[in-house]
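Task 17 of the worksheet. Students: predict the tertiary structure of the chain below and write it out as structure tokens. Keep your answer in the requested format; marks are given for formatting as well as content.
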Amino acid sequence: MCDETEAIRREMVATINSDPGSRPDLEAKHGQVWDTSQLQNDFQVIGFMAPLVVVRRRSDGVRGSLMFQNTPRLYYSFSPE
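Model answer:
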């Protein structure tokens, strides 16, 4: 199976993780930020393809995606479908 997004995603991962943001930095840029425990409380994870994770928000069932960085592992920039 050919993933047409792989090259783009690899570039995004390299960019994000070359200069990962602190939680306050990410909050200033993207609004709400979640660590892994908070993500599990607020969302059901459906799947992921770094640096994106597909989720369903528990509060209202809205499906969408989040970006994430590796270290520290933080999720941000929720975008509903």
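Marker's comment: The CA atoms of residues 6 and 52 lie 12 Å apart. The chain is about 35% helix and 35% strand.
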